[in-house]
Each structure stands twice: as structure tokens, then as C-alpha cells.
Amino acid sequence: MQTVRLYADQGLLGSVTRSVGGYRQFDPRVLPRIRLIRRLRGFGCPLGDLSRLLPADLGRPVSASRIRAFLGGLEAEHVRRMAMSRCALAFTRGIRALLSGRRGTLTEDAILSRLEAESAHL
Q1: Minimal CA–CA distance to 11: which of 43, 33, 41, 42?
Q2: Share of the chain above pLDDT 90, in %
Q3: pLDDT tens figures, 33-53
Q4: How many CA atoms lie within 13 A of 68 on its CB side?
Q5: Helical H runs in 15-107?
Q6: How do beta strands 17-18 and 24-25 pair?
Q7: Which residues pair with 18 in a beta bridge?
Q8: What are the φ/ψ torsions at residue 25 (nearest 5 degrees)?
């Protein structure tokens, strides 16, 4: 229920009414929206970005141009994250290779030299 409140607070569930006792009352149409949000979140969509995709009116369909724009931004973010992951992987592989069969300490120059060699392969 805390997740549903968070979605409502972000404005993703349309207007929310309150009962006499102060409880939130949701339109029954929010159930498919909640499932869609959960699925999109599972694909890595930031919660704050979903308001750019989902119309505030629960009954209104989403335009193809809006979906394309949203997916373009999401794809760019995934590409950026993959590039960062490749750099992190090169770092760990480089240091691991440098440590292979060694004991003792390493100089910063040795670490930097190995990282530069690994980065050249990216």
C-alpha cells in the first residue's frame, strides 16, 4: 500500500479522494495503471520520469509521439549506464590482471598504466 501512496503522491494515479475517515479512495481504473507502472519500473524507468509518459487523466490514451519521445530518453539513459558498466568492468579486469600472481603493494603509476591499457580496448 505504501507503493500505491507513493505513486499517488507523484501524481501518477489521477485525482484521489478521501473518505470521511481520511483514507484515500482510488478510482478503479488505477489498477491497470499500477500494473503498468510496476512493469515499467521493472524495466528501469525512473518513477519521476513516468509522468512524462502517462497522462494525468486515467481514461485518456497515450499518443504514439509521447511514447516515442519517452522511449528515446529511456534508451539514451540505458546506453549511458551500459557505457559506465563497461568502464567499471574494464577497471576491475585491469586491476585483477595486474594483481595476478603478485604479492605486496602496487604503485599508483602501475594501476593507472594498467587502467589506460584496458580503456584502450573499449
Answers
A1: 33
A2: 7
A3: 899 899 988 888 888 888 888
A4: 3
A5: 30-42, 50-53, 64-99
A6: antiparallel
A7: 24
A8: -120, 120
